[in-house]
Each structure stands twice: as C-alpha cells, then as structure tokens.
Amino acid sequence: MTWACERGCPVGGSKTYASAEQASRYAAAFDRQDSEDLGRRAPLLGMFPLRLARAVRQLRRHG
C-alpha cells in the first residue's frame, strides 16, 4: 500500500502487508473522515454541545 498527502505536502510512504485483505482493511481505516466521529470522543462537560448535536443527528437518522 502506498499513500501521499492530498494537501500537496511531501509526506507519503509505503508499507507491505501480509495479504491484500489486511491492506484493504488498513486503507479503509485511513480513508475515513474525522467528521464521522465528531462528538463521539468529546470530553463529557467541555464538549457537551457536540455530544448533544451528535445525539440529535442520530435521532433524525433513525427516528
């Protein structure tokens, strides 16, 4: 698997995995958007508004 920075910086590299399945699993983990987790790992009191916003979004999706 090889990777490069999408912002144009010179950061990048490569790594060899034991199988294509393992490489695919790691690539999927790196490709996820940080916004998906917004509010999930937030500290209880300091980021309470984010937790509330996330809960409202989930209720709208499932409700």
Order of helices and strands: EEHH
What proportion of the residues form beta strands (DSSP E)?
5-15%
- Biggest pleated sheet: 2 strands, antiparallel
Helix-strand category: mainly alpha
Helix content: 40-55%
Provide the low-confidence segments as ranges.
none
Q: Could you say how many structural domains there are in total?
A: 2
- Which sequence of strands runs across the widest sheet? 1-2
In short:
The chain has helices spanning 20-31, 48-62, and strands at 2-4, 12-14. The protein is mainly alpha-helical and 63 residues long.
Could you walk me through the main structural features you see in this protein, from its secondary elements to its overall organization?
With 63 residues, this protein is mostly helical. It has two domains: 1-32, no CATH class; 34-63, no CATH class. Helix content is 43%, strand content 10%. The protein has two helices and two strands, in the order ββαα. The chain has helices at residues 20-31, 48-62; strands spanning 2-4, 12-14. Strands 1-2 form a two-stranded antiparallel sheet. The model has no long low-confidence stretch (mean pLDDT 76).
